[in-house]
Design goal:
18 strands, 10 helices, alpha/beta, 8-stranded parallel beta barrel, about 425 residues, about 25% strand
């Protein structure tokens, strides 16, 4: 092997070819779907309607939408166990989402008409029933909103947990118990979201707490977003920091200029690291965003783009292959769920793919920064000698064989939809 390496080096010196090549990558302004981010379509009666696979797939292929909201109401089970048929319907809905190549923002609730929800004990029993389904379907769950308490699962109008903001210490203990229980049944690879910063800060303190994000369902509607904020001077800095590590999303609520206009909208989407937003509501607000809607569509969540890469001209089987890859995040947020990173070698003769793990976590590629992957991967000794095209792959660890769940980079002429690979436009000769 050492002799082969020396021969390769001498050959490159004699021919004048460089031992390393640097590639620069032009960015693309194209709008396209990427998993777990962007605008979503809202389904408010996920328990009684039935997802259509072709419709869901068209969201992704025709509208660049990869998320759908599923609010699953448990109206008829406020005082009884969830029926087997209801659990089967939930499983069927998630199966359809998986076949279509999307993911869900999932919420459970008991009412959309009054404040009559379930008791704390009944909620806990229902979460035990839901646990197997949640764990089995972690792959297509983007995030779980806390829900369960009050009208629409938004924790304000509630019979059993402190109505209209009048809460006793016991109410807060009951709310904390529901949240802790939800965290215990949702797979540890997934986060939940609470409706207001006050809810998280009251129950868990003002420090950083993993797996509990935020959703704002009256974004820009008033100075305090219809009660989302109690003290913006304190909660804004808190939310700006907290959402660096946990997911943020929601929906607009009502037209409220100038707050609901583009300047404030884009500043807060960026400042609070929004990953997803309802495309169906409120359409009047979204229609007023004509100066910025294209930018918002591209920037919700992460938007990774290659900047440059340096690669060797050749490598030896059993030896190292050093690469340096720059990836800029032009989005509002980083990914909030686990994501693998791999250098992929495709044999230009046989087409055989060899995947080599990269020691980096895309969740740390923060908005507005450029991450640098500097690593020497080991070329397998068993790899066939020959010419190899290099790719970067960012697959979903729970759906590694589904290319539509891999991250597409925002560059020109790099994406291969059939494989979910991003072409690094570099080749290496393996000897």
């Amino acid at each position: 092997m050492k002799i082969a390496a020396v021969v390769a080096l001498l050959a490159s010196l004699l021919t004048g070819s460089p031992t390393h090549a640097t590639v620069t990558y032009p960015a693309s302004s194209e709008t396209f779907a990427n998993p777990e981010r962007g605008f979503y379509h809202h389904t408010g009666d996920c328990d009684s309607t039935t997802f259509d696979e072709a419709t869901l797939r068209s969201y992704r292929t025709s509208q660049s939408i990869s998320l759908v909201m599923c609010i699953f109401y448990l109206r008829q089970f406020k005082t009884s166990p969830i029926s087997a048929s209801a659990l089967a319907h939930l499983q069927s809905q998630l199966d359809t989402v998986r076949r279509a190549g999307l993911k869900v923002v999932l919420r459970f609730a008991y009412t959309d008409a009054d404040n009559v929800d379930a008791t704390p004990a009944q909620v806990s029993a229902h979460l035990d029933q839901l646990a197997p389904t949640l764990r089995t379907n972690a792959d297509v769950i983007a995030v779980v909103q806390a829900g369960l308490i009050g009208t629409w699962g938004e924790w304000w109008y509630t019979q059993h947990f402190g109505d209209e903001g009048v809460l006793t210490d016991q109410n807060w203990r009951d709310r904390r118990a529901v949240t802790d229980k939800l965290l215990s049944v949702v797979p540890t690879s997934r986060a939940i979201q609470v409706r207001t910063p006050t809810i998280k800060r009251t129950m868990y303190g003002t420090g950083r707490v993993a797996r509990i994000g935020h959703h704002n369902d009256c974004f820009l509607a008033s100075p305090d977003d219809y009660g989302t904020y109690e003290n913006p001077a304190v909660e804004y800095p808190y939310l700006q920091d907290d959402t660096l590590r946990v997911p943020m999303g929601g929906e607009t609520c009502t037209v409220n200029p100038p707050r609901s206009d583009c300047p404030t909208a884009t500043a807060e989407l960026a400042g609070f690291h929004w990953s997803y937003l309802n495309t169906d509501y409120n359409r009047d607000v979204l229609n007023s965003w004509s100066p910025c809607i294209a930018d918002v569509t591209r920037k919700l969540g992460y938007r990774f783009a290659l900047t440059s890469g340096t690669y060797p001209a050749s490598a030896v089987r059993g030896g190292s292959l050093p690469v340096t890859i720059g990836v800029r995040n032009d989005g509002y947020a980083a990914p909030y769920n686990p994501r693998d990173a791999r250098l992929v070698l495709r044999n230009t003769s046989s087409g055989v793919l060899t995947r080599l793990a990269l020691d980096t976590d895309p969740r740390t590629w923060a908005a507005g920064t450029t991450a640098s992957i500097n690593q020497s991967v080991t070329v397998p000794s068993s790899l066939a000698a020959g010419q190899y095209q290099l790719y970067l792959e960012l697959p979903d660890p729970l759906l590694p064989s589904r290319p539509e769940y891999s991250i597409r980079l925002a560059n020109q002429n790099t994406w291969d939809a059939a494989t979910g690979l991003n072409n690094l436009n570099a080749t290496v000769t393996v000897r």
